[in-house]
Amino acid sequence: MNKKADNKKKEKNSETLRALANFSHIGVMIAASILIGVLLGRFLDNRLGSSPWLLLVFSLLGVGAAIKYLFDMPTK
Question: Which residues span the membrane (predicted)?
């Protein structure tokens, strides 16, 4: 009887950890896609001298990529 309770507790803990890993993965992917867009926009703005425009464009592309990732997540 004690082994059964231990197995249930281990299964519950592993399910909880798996859910936390999935949620942290979502947050990291969203932050990374936006950060990459911002950094790429800043780099190209400094390189080409087109002050805020490429930063805005690539920031919006990063946000769009993050939203697309959120919508594609349930199919994975």
Answer: 20-41, 53-71
